[in-house]
Amino acid sequence: MTSISVRQSGGANIISIPKTIVQMLGLSVGSKLNLTVEDNKIVLTPVMEETMSLESLLIGSPKECFTITDEDREWIDARPIGREV
Questions:
Q1: Is residue 41 a part of any domain in this protein?
Q2: Which domain holds residue 18?
Q3: Is residue 8 part of a domain?
Q4: Within-domain flag for 20
Q5: Which of 5, 11, 22, 47 could form a disulfide with 32 if both were Cys (CB 3.0 to 4.6 A apart)?
């Protein structure tokens, strides 16, 4: 068990999560946590962010968005101008 202290920063009360626990849970700065109180205990649970696939992101797009236009074809077939490759 690790003991930590509640501190004040500005108008907020804060705690620091030890680096070993952050690494063990795969957290990083900006990770989201749910905070609940259960049986008079503070419980922090990582919010599992849903990984979106390209298919799920595009599923609602109109079919005509996937048609290659003449302008698209011109861009695809164009030779590199600078040092892109």
A1: yes
A2: 14-46
A3: no
A4: yes
A5: 47
